[in-house]
Amino acid sequence: MGNEAELYIKGNEVETYLEKFMATLVAKNPHEVEFHQAVREVVESLAPFLLKHPVYTKLKILERMTEPERVIMFRVPWINDRGEVEVNKGYRIQMNSAIGPYKGGLRFHYSVNLSILKFLAFEQVLKNSLTTLPMGGAKGGSDFDPKGKSDNEVMRFCQSFMTELQRHIGPDTDVPAGDIGVGGREIGFMYGQYKRLRNEFTGTLTGKGFDWGGSYLRPEATGYGTTYFAQEMLKTRGESISGKTVVISGSGNVSQYAVEKVNQLGGKVVTLSDSNGYIYDKEGITAEKLAYVMDLKNVMHGRIKEYAEVYPDSMYCENQRPWGVKCDIALPCATQNEINEQEAIMLVSNGCICVAEGANMPSTPEAIEVFLKNRILFGPGKAANAGGVATSGLEMSQNSMRIKWSPEEVDAKLHSIMKNIHTTCVEYGTQPDGYVNYMMGANIGGFIKVANAMRDQGLV
Ligand code: NDP
Question: Domain range spanning residue 29?
Answer without folding.
Answer: 3-65
